[in-house]
């Protein structure tokens, strides 16, 4: 009776000036489990909550390394993220082979942004149903970018996307000032805390459902390659965090001592 | 930017319009089998905080000194100098390729720039692609500038896609006549630190003189560039100074003289 007539394709505007197919795609991002990203002056970190479809199944991959110097975390349709990550891998490799240069992050992000945007402009195409956080370093230092199905990309200091990500974002906003000066360990802990804040009551972070990726500038300005921590490797990071379930408000008072592990 | 495409065509009012019937318009497309109008040596040396590179301003048509004001050094990004030996038309083509690359890279305006190392990798790929199509770009290139760490960079690439690097490099006749002299000054990478800019420039100028004395396809007008992290000092109309042809008297066996 009152069916929406303006959401059949991504090229039609509604009378209110909206493109429903793009908005629906953005809903798909909100269905995905939460991913968090942060940057300091030296490092960029991705932290993600993995989901398994059923008790006996494996967990869905949330973080993908693209090249030595950057990787992505995804929320939404994993298959669309695969299309985009394969494209980024090709672009990164091509830059490395033809110029001997690690592809500048700003450019690779712009290129997937352009690709996603054209999908919203052609009849018979659909927007990507996935949001990404892109974290890495290039000659201008560490960076974190957010990517949305609309084709929008922007550089962020910290960001969270996916289901219940608002609480994670609240944590990030409240602790924003501490990120720039944080070291690798502190940055990961902030990421884990933000992630924890977005968890439902009956859930907690385990080595099975948590993935962490770190990239940054190490000693003597040398790059530490994009490193993914999965499964057993995550336990070191989880144990570093002294506090159990987070206090919701998420002021970073607890666990400060635990952060002083490496300096 | 160096203008490699200056109007070097014979003037119509003097020579009459060009007779295009000499150009074959029918028949199969031919790949380059040998270079036609050629530039001779390019030589270069690394020093403490940069690179000196030089090439003369001659384009020969066989043994004829056809064009005497052809600039064979071109700059890129104010950070890199590329020296071209071999076919001049292929040099002009590469010049256009580099100009469009420069525009493409500058358009992004995002603070990322190609350095000499990046350019050398790219040019070697272009050359290797063309040789793999059996249609080579008949050039020997020296690329001078700085690498990712801001250290002096100097490397070679040729029509086969071959690449190598050394603290002193020379193409063409220079590889035989200038390279041994430059190596005496800079025997290895560790010696580079000890070489001043003045010493490097003096050695390159000396070599240009030796090349003019002994390479019959060379000229006493030349271009020389000094590349450091602070920029490029390119001089395109240098003249060889303090020539002495006294040694010519003692040369025997090449002319018509009997003894």
From TrEMBL, chain A:
Main subcellular location: cytoplasm
Start and end residues of each stretch annotated as Disordered: 243-263
PROSITE patterns: PROTEASOME_ALPHA_1, PROTEASOME_ALPHA_2
Record's GO cellular component terms: cytoplasm; nucleus; proteasome core complex, alpha-subunit complex
Cellular compartment(s): Cytoplasm; Nucleus
Biological process according to GO: ubiquitin-dependent protein catabolic process
Organism superkingdom: Eukaryota
Keyword check for Protein transport: no
Domain Proteasome alpha-type subunits span(s) in chain numbering: 6-28
Keyword Cytoplasm attributed: yes
Keywords: Cytoplasm, Nucleus, Proteasome
Subunit composition and interactions: The 26S proteasome consists of a 20S proteasome core and two 19S regulatory subunits.
Family per record: Belongs to the peptidase T1A family.
PANTHER family: PROTEASOME SUBUNIT ALPHA/BETA
Name assigned to this protein: Proteasome subunit alpha type
Phylogenetic classification of the source organism: Eukaryota, Fungi, Dikarya, Ascomycota, Pezizomycotina
From TrEMBL, chain B:
GO cellular component: cytoplasm; nucleus; proteasome core complex, beta-subunit complex
Polar residues bias (residue ranges): 22-35
Subcellular location: Cytoplasm; Nucleus
Keyword Nucleus on entry: yes
Function: Non-catalytic component of the proteasome.
Keyword Transferase: no
UniProt lineage: Eukaryota, Fungi, Dikarya, Ascomycota, Pezizomycotina
Biological-process GO terms, alphabetical: proteolysis involved in protein catabolic process
Family: Belongs to the peptidase T1B family.
Region of interest: Disordered: 1-35
Species in which this protein is naturally found: Trichoglossum hirsutum
Keyword terms: Cytoplasm, Nucleus, Proteasome
Domain of life of the native organism: Eukaryota
Name of this protein: Proteasome subunit beta
């Amino acid at each position: 009776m009152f069916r929406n007539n303006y959401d059949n394709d991504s090229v039609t505007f509604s009378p209110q000036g909206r493109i429903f197919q793009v908005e629906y795609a953005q809903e798909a991002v909100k269905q995905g489990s939460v991913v968090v990203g942060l940057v300091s002056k030296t490092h960029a970190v991705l932290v993600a909550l993995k989901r398994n479809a059923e008790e006996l199944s494996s967990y869905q991959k949330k973080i993908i390394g693209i090249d030595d110097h950057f990787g992505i975390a995804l929320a939404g349709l994993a298959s669309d993220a695969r299309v985009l990550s394969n494209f980024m891998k090709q672009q990164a490799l091509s830059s490395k082979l033809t110029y001997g240069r690690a592809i500048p992050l700003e450019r690779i992000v712009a290129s997937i942004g352009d690709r996603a945007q054209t999908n919203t402009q052609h009849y018979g195409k659909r927007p990507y149903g996935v949001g990404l956080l892109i974290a890495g370093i290039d000659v201008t230092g560490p960076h974190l970018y957010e990517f949305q199905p609309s084709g929008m990309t922007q550089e962020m200091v910290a960001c969270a996307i996916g289901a219940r990500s608002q609480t994670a974002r609240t944590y990030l906003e409240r602790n924003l000032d501490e990120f720039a000066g944080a070291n690798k360990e502190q940055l990961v802990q902030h990421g884990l805390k933000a992630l924890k804040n977005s968890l439902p009551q009956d859930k907690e972070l385990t080595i099975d459902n948590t993935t962490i990726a770190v990239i940054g500038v190490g000693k003597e300005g040398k790059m530490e390659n994009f490193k993914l921590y999965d499964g057993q490797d995550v336990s070191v990071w989880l144990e570093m965090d002294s506090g159990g379930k987070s206090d919701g408000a998420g002021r970073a008072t607890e666990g400060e001592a635990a952060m002083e592990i490496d300096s | 930017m160096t203008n490699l495409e200056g109007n070097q065509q014979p003037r119509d009012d003097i020579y009459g319009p060009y007779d295009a019937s000499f150009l074959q318009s029918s028949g199969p497309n031919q790949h380059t089998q040998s270079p036609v109008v050629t530039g001779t040596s390019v030589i270069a040396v690394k020093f403490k905080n940069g690179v000196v590179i030089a090439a003369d301003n001659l384009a020969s048509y066989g043994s004829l000194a056809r064009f005497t004001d052809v600039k064979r050094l071109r700059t890129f990004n104010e950070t890199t100098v590329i020296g071209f030996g071999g076919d001049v038309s292929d040099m002009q083509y590469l010049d256009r390729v580099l100009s469009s690359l420069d525009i493409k890279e500058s358009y992004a305006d995002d603070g990322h720039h190609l350095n000499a190392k990046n350019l050398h990798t790219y040019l070697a790929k272009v050359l290797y692609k063309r040789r793999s199509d059996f249609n080579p770009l008949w050039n020997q290139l020296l690329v001078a500038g700085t690498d990712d760490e801001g250290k002096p960079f100097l490397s070679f690439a040729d029509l086969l896609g071959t690449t190598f690097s050394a603290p002193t490099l020379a193409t063409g006749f220079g590889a035989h006549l200038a390279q041994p002299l430059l190596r005496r000054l800079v025997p290895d990478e560790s010696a580079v630190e000890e070489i001043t800019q003045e010493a490097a420039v003096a050695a390159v100028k000396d070599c240009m003189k030796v090349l003019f004395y002994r390479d019959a396809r060379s000229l006493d007008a030349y271009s020389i560039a000094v590349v450091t992290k602070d920029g490029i000092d390119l001089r395109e109309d240098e003249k060889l100074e303090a020539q002495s042809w006294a040694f010519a008297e003692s040369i025997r066996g090449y002319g018509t003289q009997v003894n």
